[in-house]
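Quick one, probably user error.
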């Protein structure tokens, strides 16, 4: 049977405190619950407690015991329990069989039966320390900690030379947050076994829980000094440094282990990679991942993480190459192909991106991510009917994802299907009532439907949900200014939008227009000119500029601004009529406007001719 010390390595790594304590205390149970070693297992008459003499043992008891033993070797716990119970019926006084049954029943999750057998073993007057420790572990696992502590005390009185009993007792006291007693018990075990790293390691865990990090780290370092290959101490020391936000020292501890103990320690290296990634030290993380792949080129997780790092570094060709290699070996990995599609988008290889998403949908027609991402891409490519098809499927598959509703509604807006757009945003809001972007875009759809009161309500709702929603501030402020109502509020709203995004030329234009409506002409001109500098050629901004020049009686400047606006948008009938009304002539007779009209007509013809 393995001691607590021998189980303190991989069995406890990565566990929380309670789990670690139980793992350590119950380690002997785990050893007994596993298939017993042939060189230490004897039939009931030869058990350590010497229950019966060989001449008195019923042959049937030995027979069922051996069948139970064989079942344990085959990891058939249920059959082993049945055979040991059969053996116990023939030899009802065997504490060895009862202890074995208690252990197996505990491992099978039958705590009530396990404790019943444990009680029968614990009640016997003559016991050995090892068996008492085993039963104490069952009590501890069943939550009967006081009984467990009593048995550990009995085990120590029977054989005070076993450090495992002190350690297990200390860990149980730690679980009860009786830190001083826990430390004292573990220190007693260390006096018995000063060359064992386990005791120092447990002492460090006690100190960590007692909020004594310096003592804890000193204990972990002592465990490493006693046994430089004791991995849990490295893990605990690095974790202690992490708790102090000292990432550099944590990295140094992991590197020490890899350099001095085991350069192929995969779990340690994974922690090192995690720390580098947390610190955005991507090159260092990549170097460690390459070492992982050198040990195991087929490591799927390492290959994927390396690809993701290349993507984070915008080294897209390398990321694409890695992901393509992974998919060649594992073509059914839908998430990887979906990410590959994203990388193709980032490199403007749109046909390949469409192909990647489409291949996923051939493998799994209801794969939400690829429907969504393909729909968004097709929207960006202005392939609106195809975008509608995939986005509609996306919202059916996952109505809890707002992005599908947002882009589907925007697609309907682009195709001037305003009722469908408003219905889509409204449906999205039913699932996501607190999403400000859905309310904002619903307001824009209402604007297209000439439902101004609903526009205002939608924008006000957006701003209640997100008072710094710059688009809503700008939209509502500009809407008031354009209609010549609530001008002071229009100025206040557009000022807020500009304050949030001072280099957004469209917001600056809205503020300038609100100033114009308020009669602050000089302020309006300054803002509109700044908008021109920020945006460049925009027909609305130049139309506003012309109005301001006209207000200042700068007719030539106004005419030039409006002509430039019509060059950019020769379909603006209202501006053409206003141009004429102000006595500036007929802009449609200007050669520059005729060229603009021909250009627009040719573009439309080309769009219709493109499949």
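Nope, works fine. Designed sequence:
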């Amino acid at each position: 049977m393995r001691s607590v010390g021998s189980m303190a390595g991989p069995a406890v790594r990565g566990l929380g405190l309670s789990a670690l304590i139980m793992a350590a205390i119950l380690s002997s149970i785990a050893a007994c619950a596993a298939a017993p070693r042939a060189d230490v297992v004897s039939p009931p008459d030869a058990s350590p407690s010497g229950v019966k003499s060989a001449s008195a043992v019923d042959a049937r008891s030995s027979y069922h015991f051996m069948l139970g033993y064989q079942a344990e070797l085959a990891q058939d716990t249920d059959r082993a329990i049945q055979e040991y119970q059969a053996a116990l019926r023939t030899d009802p006084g065997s504490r060895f069989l009862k202890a074995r049954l208690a252990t197996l029943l505990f491992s099978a999750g039958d705590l009530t039966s396990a404790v019943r057998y444990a009680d029968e073993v614990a009640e016997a007057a003559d016991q050995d320390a090892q068996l008492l420790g085993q039963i104490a572990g069952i009590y501890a696992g069943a939550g009967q900690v006081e009984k467990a502590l009593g048995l550990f005390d009995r085990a120590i009185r029977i054989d005070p030379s076993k450090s495992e009993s002190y350690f297990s007792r200390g860990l149980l006291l730690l679980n009860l947050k009786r830190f001083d007693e826990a430390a004292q018990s573990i220190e007693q075990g260390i006096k018995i076994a000063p060359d064992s790293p386990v005791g120092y390691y447990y002492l460090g865990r006690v100190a960590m829980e007692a909020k004594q990090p310096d003592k804890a780290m000193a204990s972990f370092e002592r465990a490493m000094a006693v046994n430089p290959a004791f991995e849990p101490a490295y893990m605990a020391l690095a974790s202690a440094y992490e708790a102090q936000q000292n990432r550099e020292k944590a990295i140094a501890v992991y590197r020490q282990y890899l350099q001095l103990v085991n350069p192929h320690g995969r779990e340690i290296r994974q922690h090192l990679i995690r720390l580098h990634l947390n610190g955005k030290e991507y090159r260092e993380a990549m170097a460690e991942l390459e070492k992982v792949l050198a040990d195991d080129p087929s490591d799927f997780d390492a290959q994927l993480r390396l690809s993701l790092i290349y993507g984070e570094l915008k080294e897209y060709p390398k990321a694409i190459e890695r992901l393509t290699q992974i998919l060649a070996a594992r073509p059914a990995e839908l998430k990887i192909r979906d990410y590959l599609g994203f990388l193709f988008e980032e490199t403007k290889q749109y046909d390949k991106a469409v192909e990647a998403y489409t291949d996923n949908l051939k493998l799994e027609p209801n794969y939400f991510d690829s429907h969504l991402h393909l729909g968004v891409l097709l929207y960006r490519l202005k392939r609106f009917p195809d975008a509608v098809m995939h986005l509609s499927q996306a919202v059916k598959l996952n109505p809890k994802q707002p992005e599908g509703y947002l882009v589907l509604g925007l697609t309907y807006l682009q195709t001037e299907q305003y009722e469908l757009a408003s219905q889509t945003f409204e449906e999205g809001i039913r699932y996501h009532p607190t999403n400000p972007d859905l309310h904002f875009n619903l307001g824009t759809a209402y604007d297209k439907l000439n439902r101004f009161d609903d526009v205002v309500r939608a924008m006000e709702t957006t701003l209640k949900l997100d008072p710094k929603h710059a688009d809503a501030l700008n939209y509502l402020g500009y809407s008031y200014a354009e209609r010549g109502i609530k001008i002071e509020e229009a100025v206040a709203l557009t000022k807020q939008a500009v304050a949030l995004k001072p280099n957004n030329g469209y917001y600056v234009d809205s503020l300038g227009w609100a100033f114009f409506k308020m009669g602050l002409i000089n302020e309006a001109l300054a803002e509109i000119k700044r908008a021109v500098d920020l945006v460049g050629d925009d027909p609305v901004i130049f139309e506003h500029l012309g109005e301001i020049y006209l207000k200042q009686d700068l007719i030539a400047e106004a005419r030039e601004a409006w002509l430039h606006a019509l060059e950019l948008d020769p379909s603006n009938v209202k501006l053409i009529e206003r141009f004429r009304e102000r006595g500036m002539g007929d802009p449609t007779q200007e050669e520059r406007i005729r060229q603009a009209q021909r250009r627009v007509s040719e573009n439309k013809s080309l769009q219709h001719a493109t499949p």
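The chain has 34 helices and no strands.
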